[in-house]
Design goal:
Helix content is about 30%, strand content about 15%. With about 650 residues, it is an alpha/beta fold. It has a domain of about 260 residues: FAD/NAD(P)-binding domain, CATH 3.50.50.60. β4, α3 and β5 form a beta-alpha-beta unit. α3 runs parallel beside α18. The longest helix has 26 residues. The radius of gyration is 25 Å and the shape is globular. It starts with 20 loop residues before the first helix and ends in an 11-residue tail after the last strand. Bound molecules: flavin-adenine dinucleotide. Flavin-adenine dinucleotide (FAD) binds next to α3, α4 and α18. Flavin-adenine dinucleotide binds next to α3, α4 and α18.
């Protein structure tokens, strides 16, 4: 494990004036580097607390919990099964009704993990690149940009420290679902090897903090600073970035690295404001609440809940799990990193990069997430040989084959429920009927056995979900469930880039308006016409990744460095994209989404609860994104460069 180090403050270059505590803090928060004349920030507000330490998946000895029942060979997704899936979906259509955390619900967004914001003056100056977000996106961008000589880079982050997803999500049991040797970027540069195959979120957070320390990120980041408006100023060729701290900064380039699952959402439930007990969302876990012996309710059974419920069950008195739709719960088989692996990797320069690259080549979600060690370590060439058919299958036949294979996986997952959960009614409710991967797949070896415990109660609120909350707790079908604590595991807005802050481009049009009227339109997911010098990392239509999100961040970061370097070399000041290229790319996203849609035929946040237009959210074209990218980079045809007043300020290190 990384050692939790005290916040290492850099030497304060300005002399402290006499004054109040507030004034001293203000002057320490921003100082000037005498060498570069640029500002250095000291705004990290995270507190190191024993309460945030925890563990993710346990290593289990019971082999039976880590085995799947036999796959039903030859089973097909026939008409009866299709009808069952359809009924399951249709019953839930329209049930998901989420509300923003505004007004009386705004309290659920409070940053419970840091000290109050460090006081500082509002900024009205200029930087070359302003990045929104300090998760892996921000951290990797800083590493890449600074290595390429772009050092006048500033980050704005809503939270009090780095980590993004891993800063905000600290619920008990949190862990990475992509094997950590492939998920954590720059392992060799950091000289670090994760302790477990699937590292806990706490270990990942500490890794992010260590990255920020090592690469000098903290000096560049304004924490507790939420970007509220980003407005293009045609005259100066700059973005004006306004924040909740009163800043009005100018930037030549803005990069949105604000994440795909960053804004928590709440289900709209009658009477939820009346509840008199303690309530919080899983992404703001309140460790001041002692759950020992309490009666606790949790609403939601998605990926977060699957990880949190087994840990909750270990401490609470009674646990009520309110489930609208069950998750697919696959085998996890957690293990510690072995001494042999440590030794091998120590003698194998490039191991981490090679492993990440191999991971990225796996095309099937379940195979990737199960992460075969021999393949990832390069000991075997392929996980399994691609199936050979006597003739080339039509796209429709191919999808049918995939649906059959997918059905067999789900049968296996459903059989696992029956094999583990003793009460037949509970087991029936825990079985998911939709294609594998349509909702976020989950993995756990303790989740299903938790429902055999006498103090854990599954309350099946299918298909419409919890509809009523009163002063005492949840009410369902006339039964009241009094609770001391109510936990909302209701997830996040997915890919809402255009709504995280008000982005106003050329002609005063906002990105939200553009996408609402024209549909989501980007080029490579990274540019959107009319929003020059603005780049979106891992947003809608942004491909280039695998099931490993940091892989997409990596690809997008490399692309952006290439773009800034290209502009520097050519003396270009502004880049936008051509209409026809954006249209063609958006159409490509639509087509690849439609072609694979039967594999995602359910109600899921991935498809906007069944309402999203094809191609408007995640990218489903696999490796084709790279083809589009490479073609653009070699021809430069999609780009409109503006060369007037070429004043790129980056200088090679
Ligand atoms: C619980 C959970 C588990 C996950 N597990 C996995 C996994 O196992 N494997 C995987 O590949 N991916 C996983 N993901 C996806 C995960 O989000 C990515 O892997 C990755 O961490 C994203 O990094 P990011 O920097 O792009 O975004 P984030 O980590 O979300 O960081 C974005 C940051 O931007 C900040 N921000 C947003 N808007 C503003 C604003 N207007 N102003 C200032 N700051 C702003 C946010 O506060 C946040 O800190 C998981 C996500 C969640 C929520």
């Amino acid at each position: 494990m990384l050692q939790r180090s005290p916040l290492t403050e850099r030497v304060v270059l300005t002399t402290h004036k006499e004054g109040t505590d507030e004034e001293r803090k203000m002057s320490a928060a921003i100082r000037i580097d005498p060498e570069t004349g640029r500002k250095i920030f000291n705004t990290r507000a995270a507190k190191a607390s024993e309460k945030i330490t925890g563990k993710g998946y346990s290593v289990l000895a019971d082999q039976k919990l880590k085995e799947l029942p036999e796959m039903p060979a030859g089973a097909t997704f026939n008409a009866d099964e299709q009808a069952k899936y359809r009924a399951f979906k249709e019953a839930r259509l329209g049930a998901a009704d989420y509300i923003a955390m505004e007004g009386e619900f705004k309290k659920y967004l409070n940053d419970v993990y840091s000290e109050p914001p460090i006081p500082r003056e509002a900024l009205t100056d200029e930087c070359e690149v302003l990045v929104v977000g300090a998760g892996f996106g921000g951290l990797l961008l800083w590493h890449k940009l600074s290595n390429a000589g772009f050092t006048d880079v500033r980050f704005c982050e809503k939270g009090g420290d780095v980590g993004g997803t891993w800063y905000w999500n600290r619920y008990p049991g949190i862990a990475c679902d992509v094997e950590s040797y492939s998920y954590l970027p720059l392992l060799e540069e950091m000289g670090y090897i994760p302790s477990m195959k699937f590292a806990s979120g706490f270990e990942i957070l500490e890794y992010c903090q260590a990255m920020a320390q090592k690469f000098g990120f903290y000096d560049h980041c304004l924490f507790h600073t939420t970007v509220e408006a980003t407005t293009w100023d045609e005259e100066s060729g700059r973005w004006i970035v306004e924040t909740d701290r009163g800043d009005k900064m100018r930037a030549r380039f803005v990069i949105l690295a604000n994440g795909i699952l960053t804004t928590p959402k709440l289900a709209r439930i009658n009477g939820m404001e009346k509840f008199q007990g303690v309530a919080f969302h899983t992404s703001r876990w309140d460790y001041n609440v002692d759950l020992r012996g309490k009666t606790v309710g949790i609403i939601g059974t998605g990926a977060t809940a699957v990880q949190a419920i087994p840990e909750l069950a270990k401490v609470v008195g009674q646990l009520y799990v309110f489930q609208r739709t069950p998750s697919s719960v696959d085998v996890r088989d957690q293990r510690a990193t072995t001494d042999e692996e440590r030794q091998t990797w120590a003698n194998e320069p490039g191991w981490a990069r090679a492993r990440r690259a191999r991971f990225a080549r796996i095309s099937a979600g379940r195979t990737a997430i199960q992460a075969n060690d021999d393949y990832l370590a390069g000991k075997i060439e392929e996980i399994k040989k691609p199936k050979q058919y006597e003739r080339k299958l039509t796209p429709v036949e191919l999808v049918q084959k995939q649906l059959d294979a997918n059905f067999r996986i789900m049968e296996q997952i459903r059989a696992r429920v029956d094999a583990i959960v003793k009460d037949p009614k509970t087991a029936a409710a825990l079985k998911p009927y939709y294609p594998y991967g349509c909702k976020r797949p989950t993995f756990h070896d303790e989740y299903l056995p938790t429902f055999n415990l006498p103090h854990v109660h599954l309350v099946d609120v299918a298909p419409l979900g919890v509809r009523e909350i009163n002063e005492r707790g949840v009410v369902h079908e006339g039964v009241e469930y009094p609770l001391d604590v109510l936990i909302y595991a209701t997830g996040f807005q997915w890919m809402g880039t255009s709504t995280f802050n008000r982005i106003t481009g050329r002609g005063g049009r906002t990105l939200k308006e553009k996408w609402e009227t024209e549909g989501t339109k980007t080029f490579l997911g990274l540019h959107s016409k009319g929003f020059p010098n603005l780049f979106i990392v891992t947003g809608p239509q942004g491909g280039g990744g695998s099931f490993n999100f940091t892989d997409a961040i990596d690809a997008h970061g490399d692309y952006l460095v290439w773009m800034l370097q290209t502009m520097r070399e050519r003396g270009a000041r502004i880049v936008d994209v051509r209409q026809e290229h954006e249209d063609t790319y958006a159409e490509h996203c639509r087509v690849v989404d439609i072609a694979t849609a039967p594999l995602r035929d359910c109600v899921s946040y991935y498809n906007g609860e069944g309402k999203a237009e094809p191609g408007s959210l995640a990218y489903y074209g696999g490796g084709q994104w790279h083809k589009h990218r490479i073609a653009a980079q070699s021809s430069l045809e999609p780009y409109v460069f503006d060369y007037s007043e070429s004043v790129m300020t980056a200088s090679p290190k």
